[in-house]
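Quick start: what a row looks like.
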Amino acid sequence: MLHRIPVEQSGVRGKLMADAVQTCVHCGFCLPTCPTYQVLGEEADSPRGRIVLMKQVLEGDLAPEEAAPHLDRCLGCLACETYCPSGVPYSQLLSPYRDLQREKSNQRPSLARWMALQTLPFPWRFRWALRLGKIAKKWNLWTPAALQPMLQMIPDQLSKAPQKRQTIYRPRTTARFRVALLEGCAQRVLAPEIHQAAIDVLVRNGVEVHVPAEQGCCGALAWHIGDGKTAQQQAAKNLKAFEGKFDAIVSTAAGCGSAMHEYPVLFEGSATQNHAVDFASNTCDILTFLDRIGIEPPPALARTIRVGYHDACHLAHAQRETAAPRRLLQSIENLELVPIPDSDLCCGSAGIYNIEQPEIADSLGRSKAAAIQQSRCEMVALANIGCQMQIARHLQQESNVLPVLHVVQILAAAYEGRPLL
């Protein structure tokens, strides 16, 4: 697509954005793959439409506030990248654009966005926020309308705060590999058992696991809403915390892993960029790593269980990983893997999207729950905490309470001989 974007006046990522716009040939193959286009049916709420809007703003032909509603409705799921025949790097346009416009406008974040930024990246704050939210929800206390979607998302039961963790976990025999493991922020509060299951499975397969105590938020939340400064600060902390010789830096949350792969874009044009490139090249999802090294086949399940696998957007599209989770699940005898229709269509979670765009998120959540019911599975497997919370909530609303587990939780249970149902 031809453009008149003034690259030099468009920030350090100006060329990345201009190149992404230029790669688009306006073919429209992205439209049927876009969740918001499926829900809203508007060209401006499709990847192609949004690229045109961002192009017009960058060229100075459109006011940013006119484009903002359509761009705010983008989930950032990157399904468009998977299906684009021209290879448009949409992620190298959307987040840099959001960061550039935030810098120019200096606009204060909404109450819901500010609250999320002040709590989600900090586990102890997030835990207290959930406790207070549960009280407000239980007693129907007055809450600002902007925060009502947050209350609806609070799970009925909160996991207990984990004990102080070790920083190194070693296998009983000589280690085959050595990895560093990202703990995650929201996951540490909402489902700490995923982290423990990951350690158990890795150690079982001869992997020495390091959990750097100095690590923090990966920066995904801040970066994807356009707060590049905060995201850089958070990412820089991890670049330092994960220094050392590791066979891989692994994440159990697809959203976090995707964000760490974006560190080169985040640090574009800075002295840290080369470090960020090396870090990203050594980062992978835990399921990719387990599939790569080959795992010890788990014992057979006591009976056949039908399991449906949901493709988290930031694993399937951002990291282009769809095969490894399925191969790992199929390594468990008596686990029958059944297809979920449109398994790679976004469930509507997408960071804080279900807080800021609750109507669209609910529509996508209901569609995902219906697809899961159509598969007739007895359990849902996935690889992202946001998806896990969103899907479990919508299944519950449909009175279909299925177990929704991370793949490593299923593997850990199979190794230990624990019943899955």
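That is the whole record. The chain has 23 helices and nine strands. Residues 297-416 form a domain with the Rossmann fold fold (CATH 3.40.50).
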